[in-house]
Write a structure and sequence with these properties.
There is one protein chain. Helices cover about 75% and strands about 0% of the residues. It is an all-alpha fold. The chain has a domain of about 160 residues. It starts with a helix and ends with a helix. About 20% of the residues are buried.
Amino acid sequence: MLYHINIIMSIVKVCKYYYNSYCAGISWYIAYKDIQLSTIVMLALEGISIGVILLLGLIVLGKHGFAIDTAQLTLQGTQPGSIVSGLVLAVFSYVGFESATTLGDEAQKPLRNIPRAVIMSTVICGLFFIVLSYIEVLGFQNHTTPLNKSEAPLNDLANLAGVGFFGLVISLGAMVSLFACALATINAGGRILFSMARHNIFHASLGRAHGKNQTPHVAVTLVALVAFLLAASTTLLGVKVLDNYAYFGTIATYGFLFAYILVAIASPVYLWREHQLRAVDILYSVLAVVFMVIPAIGSVGIPGENSLFPVPAAPYNIFPYLFLLYLVVGGGWFIMLRLRRPEIIEQMENDLEAVHTRFGDMKKV
């Protein structure tokens, strides 16, 4: 039995070595071919991964007699600084739930299905994170290696529960989940580039749709290529696969936070212009901005021994400034575009107004 497990683990290691190229290549083909195929594959792969993790969670709970951990529920021994640090990590793990909004023009009954997808993603993922966090903390109680020091928490959790072979299943599930994330990113990123190219911000070739597949094939190809080259380049420089995921994911999360804050500010302004603004909308907006600002500040850190927001360790301490540089370059380019070709901005505003009118008419039907 041990011999067979070692053979399988060797195969997994080989797969991990070539994972970047396989993942980018297969993800590109599925995104290039058909959005319906993409969504089905993403849903199936994530379902398998989540199912395996939930099964492990049930085993851990059963090992502890399904007892209620009052220490967790009462936040026993928890410090304010720890809560803030945990909030930063939680938000960084939670972004991307709104990716379905990039498929608005391709979805059936978008005014019904897109909001449902966003809300259900938020609720289901939130419950999943809460339950699994509770189980992991419970499973690591009295263990020599604390949860925050574990390099592979779910694998260690499987060993502690006496089902070490689940570690292999979890590793395969993680690879499957990362593939689904790559596919989702290529789909969303390709459609954003496609839309920007249609507004003449990027080269017009990125705004072409495939004649048969009706997918933004050029934009999808570019996003897949860039994703592969970035990951492959850092891997060749000696960066581990999971470190790659953490580094690029952290930088990308700043973009999500920045967009969320802008949307939270713009939403009440939009509702006011539509004469639909309510006091509760303003409250939601303020709360959203506050909750997004906390992880934003936490990611940068405030120097000081007893600071609630300690400065992150290298290289994470430089990532916020890299993102700021990216914003400056992108913002400067957009300002230059606006000054040199103001008709592009006017066309964008007209197109957005046309979309608003079209969806407004769909509401009346």
